Amino acid sequence: MNKELTCNQVSALISFYIKGKLNPKLKEYVDLHLEKCPACRKKIDDLNKILNKFNNNTTEPEQPQEEETLSYEFRNRLSAYVDNELESHENIIMKKMTISNPTARKELESMYKFQKAMGSAYNKTKNDFKYDYSKDILHKLQDGREYTTTYFYKLMILFTVLVMAIVGGFLYLYF
After folding, report:
1. pLDDT band (50, 70, 90) for residue 46
2. How many domains does the chain have?
């Protein structure tokens, strides 16, 4: 494997890298790329910040009182709201909360940024891998059979020639 990863390859591996699910060698290649590429490093840092914020429900020191007023219900419905999975009356409640609460707006903006970053990483990966691996595997299997068959026939011909040479040698010596 080439030790130099492209930005597209790193984008495709971003979720595995953040979760720590890459094998050590691949992680090393991603780390090498991140040392050289400030854009990818910034993308991963931003995603880590967003994930840490949602996982830890940390508060910003500037507005601790507003963060406390952000309801548990709002946090649980935020992802569904962004994905447009709520019913109309729940959507109205979420809109009112985001309009009236600056912290809720920040949470919503962070969620949109996260969704956009993950969507772009997904689209890059999807576009990069439009290759049909099943056809490739079938061709390799078929080629393998043909190669094995061809190899078998070549061995049979060689064996037949050797046997004929030995028999011809014996016939020549005795007759």
Report:
1. confident
2. 1
